[in-house]
Amino acid sequence: MGGEKRSSDRSVSSSSSPSPSCFSNFWSSALRTKTLPPQSETSGRVVSGDGLVRRLGLFDLVLLGIGASIGAGIFVVTGTVAHDAGPGVTVSFILAGASCVLNALCYAELASRFPAVVGGAYLYTYTAFNELTAFLVFAQLMLDYHIGAASIARSLASYVVAILELFPLFKDNIPSWIGHGGEEMLGALSFNVLAPILLVLLTIVLCRGVGESSVLNSVMTTAKVIFLPYLRIYCIFLRVSGSI
């Protein structure tokens, strides 16, 4: 009886304790890297049409990089940054530009070292480091993309409403919850209907394909690059005239 009880206690304790094989399997999976296929196999898949077709040219890639570096946030948060940083706003933009250059150099190095990898930062990290690090990069990117898209869409909705109010038909006739996001519920919650609509429209363009989204990105980036010098000259004029 005593022997049976001790053996049953050992079996219960062994079943309740985590198995070492679970941890070993987890770490072996977390530390594994992605194996690259042979270059000949990758080229054959692209030629046969089984792989992803590279439709972006040099001009498209340059504009894509410029658009990612000079985002819509430069029209949204510049005033806030200037208010908080004061004269140090120039240093802030220099540091941000240096960070963008380092990021671009990292992508260029990874693209040249792993030309067969298609999938962005996640697969680059998966190939160069391990799956656990790639998962952390993926989680950070998802957080960054969602928060960034929400804030930029909200600001873009405010700009769209401001443009519509230039017309007499919409002047002072657009409710705040459509685009301005009026504060509600003790200032902790605001509604902005136009922001998710803009996100849905942009998502539809992205789902149409790489070519359509590349054309839209090229148009928007070109408009930003052309508009920024005029904005800088206008701000200098306001500064000289004493308006700001």
TrEMBL record:
<feature type="compositionally biased region" description="Low complexity">
    <location>
        <begin position="10"/>
        <end position="22"/>
    </location>
</feature>
<feature type="transmembrane region" description="Helical">
    <location>
        <begin position="88"/>
        <end position="110"/>
    </location>
</feature>
<comment type="similarity">
    <text>Belongs to the amino acid-polyamine-organocation (APC) superfamily. Cationic amino acid transporter (CAT) (TC 2.A.3.3) family.</text>
</comment>
<keyword id="KW-1133">Transmembrane helix</keyword>
<dbReference type="GO" id="GO:0015171">
    <property type="term" value="F:amino acid transmembrane transporter activity"/>
</dbReference>
<dbReference type="InterPro" id="IPR002293">
    <property type="entry name" value="AA/rel_permease1"/>
</dbReference>
<dbReference type="Pfam" id="PF13520">
    <property type="entry name" value="AA_permease_2"/>
</dbReference>
<dbReference type="GO" id="GO:0016020">
    <property type="term" value="C:membrane"/>
</dbReference>
<protein>
    <submittedName>
        <fullName>Cationic amino acid transporter 9 like</fullName>
    </submittedName>
</protein>
<feature type="transmembrane region" description="Helical">
    <location>
        <begin position="191"/>
        <end position="211"/>
    </location>
</feature>
<keyword id="KW-0472">Membrane</keyword>
<feature type="transmembrane region" description="Helical">
    <location>
        <begin position="61"/>
        <end position="82"/>
    </location>
</feature>
<keyword id="KW-0812">Transmembrane</keyword>
<feature type="region of interest" description="Disordered">
    <location>
        <begin position="1"/>
        <end position="22"/>
    </location>
</feature>
<feature type="transmembrane region" description="Helical">
    <location>
        <begin position="223"/>
        <end position="240"/>
    </location>
</feature>
<feature type="transmembrane region" description="Helical">
    <location>
        <begin position="122"/>
        <end position="143"/>
    </location>
</feature>
